[in-house]
Amino acid sequence: MESLPRTYVPNTNALLLDGKRVAQLIRESLATRVAALHARGITPCLAVMLVGDDPASHTYVRTKAKACESVGIRSIVRHFPASVAQAELEAQLDAWNADPSVHGVLIQHPVPAPLDEPALLRRLDPRKDVDGITPYSLGALVAGEPAFGACTPLGIIRLLDAYGLPIEGKHAVVVGRSVILGKPMALMLLNRNATVTICHSRTRDLASLTRQADILVAAVGKPEFITGEMLKPSAIVIDAGYNRVEGRTGDVGDVAFDSAAQVASAITPVPGGVGPMTVAMLLHNTVEAAERYG
Ligand code: NAP
User: Fold this and answer.
1) Which of 47, 110, 119, 259 could make an SS bond with 228 (beta carbons 3.0 to 4.6 A apart)?
2) Are 98 and 158 within one domain?
3) Catalytic annotation on 131?
4) The domain that contains 241 carries what CATH number?
5) Would 45 be classed as within a structural domain?
6) Is 54 a catalytic residue?
7) pLDDT above 90: percentage of residues in the chain
8) Are 259 and 198 in the same domain?
């Protein structure tokens, strides 16, 4: 990857981790790999299952489909009403599992209750789990075996790597333990030889732990929850949060950016940090699936 311009947050010593720029570079290299696949007669294809009418989910799916198009990946979006039968969704997954022209399948979260999202994830062929969140893929991460990595934590690792920020031997503190983000994040950092602490809603004296972090990942889902006072001087701060706040335009992160940037040595913005990396990793995993199994 070409060397990245190093931009600092104005009036601070904090390096701005520009996920948008890194994601763009990744997309450019993916477009080259997709062209090579096209030359072999393979068009990488991502199939997306979207259930219900959650506006945020519709927006995310549109963004992902557009991103696919930008690098030459074909995308199929199948939208089902929330009243759909579980059996119909399962039949669709079976069809995609069996279709050699479909390389990746994404089940857009959340699938509305009473539909059984975990059962859908269990049904998906792990070779097509480009979102990296089926029990198989997560188990492979625990076992240190190859599988597709969950896109958001994988994107965070790639962002740290793009800036040459070492992980090995560092104390990484992950705030949040969700299946799609906090847990795989902790495992990926552990697999890269960080010493990892995982915090959650029952953690006592959270700030005493976050203040020990060389690398702090905020994956809480609470706007501006992590403040500068909760950080160790020169920490690397990764904000995975995306929160809607009434009266404010755009998304608000889980980190109070201005106070954190006064203390951090590097920090991701929201937007333009982790979000674009997540989408880039979805494209990356889809291209890999087409290269491996196409
Ligand atoms: P989630 O499933 O709601 O998980 C939130 C986690 O935060 C839980 O583990 C919860 O602990 C923990 N938590 C809640 N309150 C806490 C507190 N007071 N102290 C410490 N921990 C606390 O959320 P998620 O899906 O992981 O998402 C987290 C954030 O990342 C959200 O803002 C989401 O929008 C964003 N996100 C961004 C991307 C992206 O592409 N950038 C992708 C996915 C998610 P318990 O387990 O104890 O409840």
Assistant:
1) 259
2) no
3) yes
4) 3.40.50.720
5) yes
6) no
7) 96
8) yes
Tens of pLDDT, residues 46-87? 999 999 999 989 999 999 999 999 999 999 999 999 999 999
Domain assignment present for residue 22? The answer is: no
What atom of ligand 1 comes closest to residue 273's alpha carbon? 41
> What's the domain count of the chain?
2
Residue 254 domain-assigned?
Answer: yes
Model-wide pTM > 0.85: yes
Expressed in angstroms and rounded, the spacing between residue 95 Cα and the centre of ligand 1 is 33
Active site residue 212: no
Range of the domain at 105: 41-124
Mean pLDDT score of the chain: 97
Give residue 294's pLDDT band: very low, low, confident or very high (50, 70, 90): confident
Of 197, 199, 242, the one to substitute when testing ligand 1's pocket (max ligand atoms within 8 A of C-beta) is 242
Residues with CB under 6 A from ligand 1: 152, 175-178, 180-182, 199-203, 206, 219-222, 240-243, 254, 274-275, 278
Catalytic residue among 18, 128, 129, 131: 131
Which 3-state string (H, E, C) describes the chain? CCCCCCCECCCCCCEECCHHHHHHHHHHHHHHHHHHHHHCCCCCEEEEEEECCCHHHHHHHHHHHHHHHHHCCEEEEEEECCCCCHHHHHHHHHHHHHCCCCCEEEECCCCCCCCCHHHHHHHCCHHHCCCCCCHHHHHHHHHCCCCCCCHHHHHHHHHHHHCCCCCCCCEEEEECCCCCCHHHHHHHHHHCCCEEEEECCCCCCHHHHHCCCCEEEECCCCCCCECHHHCCCCCEEEECCCEECCCCCCEECCECHHHHHHHCCEECCCCCCHHHHHHHHHHHHHHHHHHHHC
CATH number at residue 90: 3.40.50.10860
pLDDT band per the 50, 70, 90 thresholds, residue 1: low
Ligand 1, closest atom to CA 253? 32
Give the distance (Å) from ligand 1 centre to CA of residue 178: 6
> What is the predicted pLDDT for the residue at 2?
65
